[in-house]
Amino acid sequence: AQSVTQPDIHITVSEGASLxxxxxxxxxxxxxxxxxxxSPGQGLQLLLKYFSGDTLVQGxxxxxAEFKRSQSSFNLRKPSVHWSDAAEYFCAVGxxxxxxxxxFGGGTRVLVKP
Amino acid sequence: EPEVTQTxxxxxxxMGQEVILRCVPISNxxxxxxxxxxxxxxxxxxxxxxxxxISEKSEIFDDQFSVERPDGSNFTLKIRSTKLExxxxxxxxxxxxxxxxxxxxxxxxxxxxxx
Lengths: 114, 115
Fold this sequence. Notes:
heterodimer, A: mainly beta, six-stranded mixed beta sheet, four-stranded antiparallel beta sheet, globular, B: mainly beta, seven-stranded mixed beta sheet, 0% helix, 50% strand
């Protein structure tokens, strides 16, 4: 069965500092991997996705993620965080063979200090 | 930019009552989903729907749950007899295809509170 683990429940980072959010997945085949962001009162917005090709993926809002098959990881990074990046971030793996369902990690809440 | 909308934003109901959560997916999308998030827990898949049929459902999606596309625009989730443990945020999503890596667009959610 597929699963996703986000080891960090909360991360606090200073504005302008770099950010890395960890994601580990378990999936039997080539995974389809996603990062979503949720701001308070909002739905989930896709930041980026990986399903094949270049293992370094660029997304919106200056985010990138690197797929490492050997480590079963898909960590999200941003070189310089802005106050508006304060939100909850979810990693997910998609299963095309099962109705395209997404399995989510528990989320990481990012707080940005001025 | 097209978006998925959900109504109501917050629904309060008594245990045992029926509720219907409504969603309007993006107009050219063909695949529809419901997820839920109990407070403090993960977002969980409930069901996917295509061509007026359920494609996949989770263990959570038991006989108390049903989905319907009653017309060309709405997609509904019905809970027949609500339980306290059904209290959660319910998210609707839609996608154009189910190609590998296809993005699911999520609505803002309906917070269901069962008393």
